[in-house]
Amino acid sequence: MNPVLARETKERFRGKRTMPWLLIVWILAIGLIAYLLFVIARQIAQSQFGLGQALASGFMGRFLFESMTILVVTAVVMVVPGLTALSIIGERERQTFHLLQVTQMSPYQLVLGKLSSSIAYFGVLIVAVLPIVALPMIFGGTMFSDVAVALAFIALLTMMLGSVSMWMSARAKTSRSAVAMSYAIAFLIAFLSFAGLGAEYFLALDDRGDLPDEGVESVSALFNPYFALASAVEAPLEIGQDRFFASPYTPLELHLFARQGAGGAVDLGVGQVAPGTIRIENGRQFVNYTRPPLWIYTTIIYLILIGLGLWRATVIVTAPSTRVRARNGRNKPEPPTEVVVDGTA
Amino acid sequence: MIVEFAGVEKRYGDVVALGGVDLSIPEGSITGLIGPNGAGKTTSMLVMSTLLERDAGRVTVVGVDPATDPRAVRRQLGWMPDFFGFYDSLTTREYLDFFAAAQKIPAAKRPAIISDLLELVDLTEKVDADVNSLSRGMKQRLSLARALVHDPDLLILDEPASGLDPRARVQLRELIAELSRLGKTVIISSHILSELEGICSHMAVIDDGVVKAQGSMDEIRAAATGSRRVAARVPDERVDEAISVLESAHDVTDVVVEKGVLGFLLSGDDASSAEQLAGLVAAGVPVYEWRVEAAGLEELFMHLTRDEP
Fold first, then answer.
1. Model confidence over B243-281: pLDDT tens digits?
2. Which residues make Cβ contacts (< 8 Å) with residue A72, sequence separation at least 6?
3. Mean pLDDT over the full length of chain A
4. What are the counts of helices (DSSP H) followed by strands (DSSP E) for chain B?
5. Bridge-based pairing state of the strands B261-266 and B77-80
6. Contact A144, A137 (CB under 8 A)
7. Which residues of A touch B89 (CB under 8 A)?
8. Angle at the Cα of A310 (from A306 to A312), degrees rounded to 5?
């Protein structure tokens, strides 16, 4: 086991801030939110389908599932930067950083140990509320593959934000700046990308104020975890008698739909859905997707950010002598007993 | 030589920290690295410890260049910085166990190593105490135990006696002597020169980023112009007269009066001492006592690091 992971796990679960109060508060908060969502879902189901219908039950399951995944993604964005941003800078401020550098641990081990301990802690928080998050499956309307895909994407998002925050932690001079930079990036990706999307839509509007027929390939949405999540899970836009059955993913799905060139659908009016984009299954109407799902792009971007974050953090954590070696090796190979630095003997 | 520097340079922007350091540390020695603040001691130690890159020059530590194979150096190197680095929520045992794991020591071997180390640094009774609860002296000894956890051949101790009370200093000095008996090479920097004088077999004086003198303590004393401190007791009413006589001599410096005793540094030999005594007598100054002492580390240090004209 990675020594840093072992130590940090021990420290985290020994600290007064962690167990048991934080866990209890966390579970109660998620439980309360889940209950509120259940009440809301029941109200919406009543208004759309009326009580007692099987369809209503499926809708409620779907509604709760979508709400809970959005809630967990938001929790990741709010919690993970805070957990990881202090990891490297914390060692510097505690004056233990150099002590770790002169051990036999490689910079990779150090960075991965730090990242895994932060993520493992968040993992405990997620596992603790997993029964609540899985409640929607009782109502139906959600497949196990949806839950698996959502969890996989949440894990990817956690890794991405953790890696980027680790990078910020390694390059920061103070813990305050590490936290500020980590949250700035997380909020930029998760929340400000909505504003970016709005700006892109605004710029794409034609003279009549309509989106172009060929659709809008927005860049902002490629980074946004909510759009990626909505596109990754099987979340069909179901069309009822005269409108979409609105659920938490609906606004996200409408954007994904708009990318296909049926931009007029964003006002929830079924009548404006472009011909050929509707598929009918078992007598129910769903909007058909023909383009590659957005989540593929997002996944690629997140994987790049994970690699970049870990690589930069590792480079910064590497003791300077190793960097001299790397530079010498690249520029001018030297015999082992006589190293030339920057070309000067 | 276990550590060798040849023309090592290091700059921080426009500030020259090391301006061509040539340094040789013999294996098995206890070498004191002394110099005023900002002289380059800590920078030299950081370069040795693989934590700082040099701008120029050649360095070998335990036969390896720290720039080409830092991990090989780290295997043989124990570094104790001039600050404490602790995880407050760990116990003494857990703290050492963590660093032992970081040094790739198998889990099965760690309990015995930790037990031996705690016994060596006299912290056995504190094995399950929170690190945070230890006194400064205990933390310093724990820090030394951490540096020793992988049984290195070379120990680099940066200002280890800083901030310790007299008892803790004596304990630390005894500990360092014990480590030397165990075959470790110890490099130690300190501002408390009297601490080094009692335990160091070798010394290197560094000032303005350059090594001014190095060698065994005897070699340094011999090389440092033979300065010796002379204490003379003369009547109180004749002190001013005695000072003017002594200050006129070319091989006398640093004339001071302390508690009624006249003291000065004599750079000449025994004949010169006799000459100064004769000069005072010839001037009619009665001399009640005349005591010539070998120069201590402090005098050597002052002599070697004084500003060049």
1. 988 888 888 888 888 877 888 888 777 788 888 899 899
2. A126, A133, A154
3. 78
4. 11, 13
5. unpaired
6. yes
7. 11, 14-15
8. 120
Q: Which residues does A319 contact at the CB level (< 8 Å), separation at least 6?
A: A101, A102, A107, B50, B51, B70
What's at A291, amino acid-wise? Answer: R
**Helix or strand run (H / E) with residue B305:** helix B297-305
Is A295 in contact with A156 (CB distance < 8 Å)?
A: no
**pLDDT score, position A307:** 96
Q: Which residue is associated with the tokens 């009326």?
A: A50
Structure tokens at B77: 């190197």
**In whole angstroms, how far apart are CA A72 and each of A65, A120, A128, A160, A328?**
11, 16, 12, 15, 47
Candidates B49, B71, B85; nearest CB to A104: B71
Q: Is the peptide bond before A335 cis (omega within 30 degrees of 0)?
A: no
Considering only CB atoms, A339 lies closest to which of B9, B67, B81, namely: B67
The span from the CA of A12 to the CA of A22, in Å, is 11
The ipTM estimated for the assembled molecules is 0.76
pLDDT at position B203: 87
pLDDT class of A56 with cuts at 50, 70, 90: low
A333 CB burial (10 A radius; 0-12, 13-18, 19+): exposed
| Residue A333 CA, distance from chain mean position | 43
Q: How far apart are CA B161 and CA B137, in angstroms?
A: 9
- Look at residues B122, B87, B117, B86 and name the one whose alpha carbon lies nearest to residue B100: B117
pLDDT in tens, B2-44: 899 998 998 888 888 888 889 999 998 999 888 888 888 889 9
User: Would you tell me how many other CB atoms lie within 10 Å of the CB of residue A162?
Assistant: 27
- The secondary structure of B34-52 as a DSSP string is E--TTSSHHHHHHHHTTSS
Q: Do B50 and A337 touch (CB under 8 A)?
A: no
Expressed in percent and rounded to 5, the helix, strand and coil fractions of chain A are 70, 5, 25
Closest CA to B87 of B124, B132, B122, B146: B132
Spans of chain B, pLDDT less than 50:
309
Question: What is the pLDDT at residue A326?
Answer: 42
Question: Across the interface, do A336 and B66 touch by the CB < 8 Å criterion?
Answer: no
